[in-house]
Amino acid sequence: MKKVIIAAFVLIAWCVGTSAIAEKPAMKNGGEAEFKEHCAMCHPDGGNIMNAKKTLGKKDREANNIKTEADIVKIMRTPGPGMTAFDKKTISDNEAKEIAQYILKSFK
Which of the four CATH numbers 3.30.1370.60, 1.10.760.10, 1.10.1760.20, 3.30.565.10 does domain 28-106 have? Predict the structure, then answer.
């Protein structure tokens, strides 16, 4: 009987633990929460408080040769003057891709 109780407890603990771990890599909100945490203070509603010609809107992105998810991640890692660089410790590669996907989907 003890083994059954222990096995049940281990199984429940494993299920709870794996569901909590699984939520972070596959973010449900498509990067929106990460964008709000790291980007929105300088890019409210896709704008740009430092340079109005470099908004996150499609027209401005493309005018600045930023067309793909990879282009956005590259800018996040090695930005120009006025923008904070986000290293992999601050924003993981997965989170950066989620943010880039969110930007491409949200700011047209």
Answer: 1.10.760.10
